[in-house]
Design brief:
By secondary structure, this protein is mainly β. The chain has a single domain (about 10-120), classed as Immunoglobulin-like. About 0% of the residues lie in helices and about 40% in strands. The protein has strands at about 10, 25, 30-35, 40-45, 55-60, 60-65, 85-95, 105-110, 110-115.
């Protein structure tokens, strides 16, 4: 019996493809979960309003961008400032085994969940064995 290596269905794209901007950009941590029917990306993006989330899929790349609005007036004087404000950015190469038309997302309490349903051809299935006569 041979062991077959399974190709990942979602891979992070190289950092060179990330957009440049003048503000801070954070790389949020992501968990990728696999079930029988889908992959789920779970990403922490605290401080983001739902209207500031942009999730795009083009040419096999899933891109997530989220902007956080400033908390304070521009002229605010700080005695100590440890919390940085900026955008979040991640992108992933999505394999052909994903049904791209079925991609969906939900956002609650600073956590973004992106559901990537598996294409029917990628789902495990039981093979019926017929009795030969």
């Amino acid at each position: 019996m041979t062991s077959e290596t399974k190709e990942p269905q979602v891979q992070e794209t190289p950092t060179a493809e990330q957009p440049t901007n003048s503000g801070l950009a954070y790389r949020p941590n992501v968990d990728i979960l696999e079930s029988e029917n889908e992959l789920t990306l779970v990403m922490d993006v605290p401080g983001v309003e739902r209207d500031s989330l942009d999730i795009d899929f083009a040419e096999g790349v899933l891109t997530v961008q989220a902007r956080v609005a400033p908390r304070y007036a521009a002229n605010q004087r700080f005695l100590l400032r440890e919390y940085g404000i900026g955008s979040f950015y991640r992108s992933f190469q999505v394999g052909e085994q994903i049904d791209v038309d079925g991609i969906s997302a939900e956002y609650a309490d600073g956590v973004l969940r992106i559901h990537l349903p598996k294409a029917e051809a990628a789902k495990p299935r039981k093979i019926a064995v017929k009795v030969a006569s």
